[in-house]
Amino acid sequence: MAQPLTVLFMPESAYGPTNNCIGIGDVLRRRGHRVVFAAERSWDGKLEKLGFVEDLVDLSPPPPPDAPEQDAGQFWKEFIRDTAPEFRKPTIEQLGTFMQPTWQALIDGAQFCEPQLREIIARHKPDVIVEDNVVCFPALVTAGAPFVRIVSCNPLEMPGPDVPPAYGGLPSDDRSSWGPFREEYDRTHRPMWSAFDAWVREQGAPGLPDLEFIHRSNALNLYVYPEIVDYTDRRPLGATWRRLDSSVRQTDTDVELPPLLTDRPDGSALIYLSLGSLGSADVGLMKRLVSVLADTPHRFIVSKGPEHADYDLAPNMWGAEFLPQTKLIPLVDLVITHGGNNTTTEAFHFGKPMIALPLFWDQYDNAQRVDETGFGVRLPTYAFEDEDLRRAIDRLLGGGLPRRMAGIAAEIRAKDGVTRAADAVEAVGATAATGVAAGR
């Protein structure tokens, strides 16, 4: 093996980006590299169990010593729960009331933890730094080690004139709403972006691209999205960009399904329902979905999320607060999802049609893309009629889509995105380490 490297991962606190980094980091760890996670404090103890080094950061002042222990990702769960009423608004109206405050919260976290990150980098002296986030942490790009960016969001986060603006869930073939959305984004976000860009420069980092909150890497940029639904024909990317059709971790534990799910009546399907750790915090929405889906012949696996104790499942359902998603999606016939990037790409990885009920951020873009390319159905999360959801299930299960997606999935899995990502990160680190050694 080549010289062992120290690889520092800095993921966003949410489960999607962190799980993506876990999958790549696990491959590197098994190759003998030292993998350090500068994750947010609520992941304390959870990453070390997987064989990683933890050197965690606080994104806000830590709670008092006698405060209850936080769940992983609690910082954002609480923020999303408090902001959930905004999800009922059209996306253009969310720009000022949800998106801008969310960006500001992310910026506040980056600014608060900047001194901590500099200390972590000084302690570990990484050969390569990997960030899976949406905002700049200047310490990561001024550390003297190559910086790798991972995009665990819909690829519209890399903008272009011939693709819709990100976060709107706008159609690719109808440009009529693009201009007004971009204008409102500029109006609501430019003052905040300008202040953040000035602070980033004060920390010694380069200025940010216009109205973007994070740099592109000069060494390697990875993004996770299946080629068949990507926008590459409309928005080509530069040589430092590399697409991974999927990046599915191997660290989830196996699960044994109960007889309710394995001994199903003829004609019934097995369906996975997950609105993500953040979306499932909306108990009212989860209760409605349980009620609507109870009146179907199918069986359901439900990822109940952080508020699991606040609602009950119907007799045709089984679930828990946390479930090993990558072990369950291969077993089901259909996925009902919030449209998070991890779940969307994992559904393609395992060949499962989707019903998307987006709530915030790039979930609208994923839902729109899945719908407009024919691989699923987008429904209005708070305005769908009961029969809309039931008909969507019947339509997706009854045609030829499952067979088509199974073939696509086999091609995606053969590309082995998580290993390719680890290879690319390893190559960047090895090149840097060789250069340092040669200069000594």
List the helices and strands and how they pair.
Blueprint: E1 6-11, H1 15-30, E2 34-37, E3 53-54, H2 74-83, H3 91-124, E4 128-132, H4 138-141, E5 147-151, H5 178-202, E6 220-224, E7 241-244, H6 259-262, E8 270-274, H7 276-279, H8 283-294, E9 299-303, E10 317-320, H9 325-328, E11 334-337, H10 341-350, E12 354-356, H11 363-372, E13 376-378, H12 386-398, H13 401-415, H14 417-439
Parallel strand pairs: 1-2, 1-4, 2-3, 4-5, 5-6, 6-7, 8-9, 8-11, 9-10, 11-12, 12-13
Helix-strand pattern, N to C? EHEEHHEHEHEEHEHHEEHEHEHEHHH
Principal-axis shape equals globular
Total count of helical runs of at least 4 residues: 14
- What fraction, in percent, of the residue positions are helical? 40-55%
Give the overall average pLDDT. 90
Number of strands: 13
Main β-sheet, spatial strand arrangement: 3-2-1-4-5-6-7
Radius of gyration: 21 Å
Taking the alpha carbons of the first and last residues, their distance comes to 22 Å
Structural class: alpha/beta
How much of the polypeptide forms β-strand, as a percent range? 5-15%
What does this structure look like?
This protein is α/β, with parallel strands linked by helices. The protein is 42% helix and 12% strand. The protein has a seven-stranded parallel beta sheet with strand order 3-2-1-4-5-6-7. Strands 10-9-8-11-12-13 form a six-stranded parallel beta sheet, sandwiched between helices. Helix 1 (15-30) crosses helix 14 (417-439) and helix 3 packs parallel to helix 5. The protein is globular. The two termini are 22 Å apart. The mean pLDDT is 90.
